Automatic annotation (TrEMBL):
GO terms for molecular function: ATP binding. Gene3D superfamilies: P-loop containing nucleotide triphosphate hydrolases. PANTHER family: TEICHOIC ACIDS EXPORT ATP-BINDING PROTEIN TAGH. This is ABC transporter ATP-binding protein. It comes from Peiella sedimenti.
Length: 246
């Protein structure tokens, strides 16, 4: 059997939420009340434990749904898988090129044109100049932006913006697809084409991971599920063997 595509072992991650310094007004009042003793705690940070002991392995062909209530750690786990966040402890190894769609508009410049922004986004994804040039005609065509492609993105409607980001993000070859909800954006005509493209990408990736609140997607496009609650794993395994309905 070939090596797993994703191995996550005992992942834990805390977010710093409030430093004692950030609570300065409350601090000042408190500090006076306790006669200055709070100063001793000035470097302390209040944290939230967003991931607590997450382990799983995904093989070639697996389609994982991550489900759980708001704040259960889904997006945080996706960011760890995409290499955006480092876990505090534990280890994640991903074999292959990851497309995450989580940081789509990262680096976007509002005064720059659609074309210039596409180049920047692809460069940030690690593509070389000739690879970028080769992809642009298809991105222009799929986005349907026509002349708007040459205008600053500050002139775009939100639908146009979504077209630009989606067309660019899905123009990149990927081994491992990591998504926060199913991407679809824009007007009805574009949503139809975008959905078809998402389906194709989702089924052609070696491994795909989707965080979702949509039970229908879990049943129809995924074979495995990880159920999170307050950052802890409640269940990981095959959708067909999982307890409860989504
Ligand atoms: N940047 C941040 N700073 C501090 N705390 C954060 C940050 N991002 C998330 N959290 C906290 O971490 C926990 C997990 O959040 P996360 O966004 O991963 O949950 P989620 O399951 O994706 O939620 P949702 O379904 O609402 O998108 C929550 O308690 C949240 O408040």
């Amino acid at each position: 059997m070939s090596a797993p595509v994703i191995e996550a072992e005992h992942l834990r991650l805390h977010y710093p939420v409030l430093s004692m310094r950030a609570r300065s007004l409350r601090n000042a009042v408190l500090n006076r009340a306790v006669g200055g003793r709070l100063l001793k705690a000035k470097h302390e940070t209040v944290t939230v434990l967003a991931l607590d002991g997450i382990s799983f392995t995904l093989e070639e062909g697996d389609r994982l749904a991550i489900i759980g209530p708001n704040g259960s750690g889904k997006s945080t786990l996706l960011k760890v898988l995409a290499g955006i966040y480092e876990p505090d402890t534990g280890r994640v190894s991903v074999r292959g090129k990851v497309s995450s769609f989580l940081d789509l508009s990262f680096g976007l410049e509002h005064e720059a044109t659609g074309r210039e922004n596409v180049k920047t986004m692809l460069r940030l994804k690690g593509l070389k100049k000739d690879e970028i040039e080769a992809r642009i005609p298809e991105i222009v065509a799929f986005s349907g932006l026509e002349n708007y492609f040459e205008l600053p993105v500050r002139t775009y409607s939100s639908g146009m913006f979504a077209r630009l980001l989606f067309s660019t993000a899905t123009a990149i070859d990927t081994d491992v697809l990591v998504m926060d909800e199913w991407l679809s954006a824009g007007d009805a005509e574009f949503v139809e084409r975008a959905t078809a493209r998402m389906n194709a990408m989702f089924s052609s990736a070696r491994v795909a991971v989707l965080a979702t609140h949509n039970p229908k997607l879990v049943d129809t496009v995924c074979n495995k599920v990880l159920v999170l609650e307050k950052g802890k794993p409640l269940y990981f395994g095959l959708v067909k063997d999982s307890p409860g309905n989504f």
